[in-house]
Specification:
By secondary structure, this protein is mostly beta strands. Helix content is 0%, strand content 50%. It starts with a strand and ends with a strand.
């Protein structure tokens, strides 16, 4: 049984930094991607940043390029999202997901429960 547990969200001021973590259990790494997505009230879920499992290949939404960094610690089975210079428009529920491709959320099969970030 695969489980993803996000943590690190909260309420911050514009310009602050936050690091989100996503701990995965029961998961055998594949060659697919894992990533972070977000959904604000009244909006569709969107891809923020994804990384190919076991690789340094990353993709970012234009709105977060230069501010957010995705990384993975394979030894800890943990995915991270470092978010710097946060803006009000970054406020959303942030989800991690695994076993998909690209920034489109529709291909990802396994999702965490989400962690709220409010700027």
């Amino acid at each position: 049984h695969v489980q993803l547990v996000e943590s690190g969200g909260g309420s911050v001021q514009a310009g602050d930094s936050v690091r989100l973590s996503c701990a995965a259990s029961g998961y055998t790494a594949s060659s697919n991607c894992m990533g972070w997505f977000r959904q604000a009230p009244g909006k569709e879920r969107e891809g923020v940043a994804v990384i190919r499992t076991g690789s340094t290949s990353t993709w970012y939404a234009d709105s977060v390029k230069g501010r957010f960094t995705i990384s993975q610690d394979n030894a800890k089975n943990t995915l991270y999202l470092q978010m710097n210079n946060l803006k009000h428009e970054d406020s959303a529920m942030y989800y991690c997901a695994i076993d998909g491709w690209g920034l489109g959320p529709e291909t990802y099969k396994i999702w965490g429960q989400g962690t709220q970030v409010t700027v």
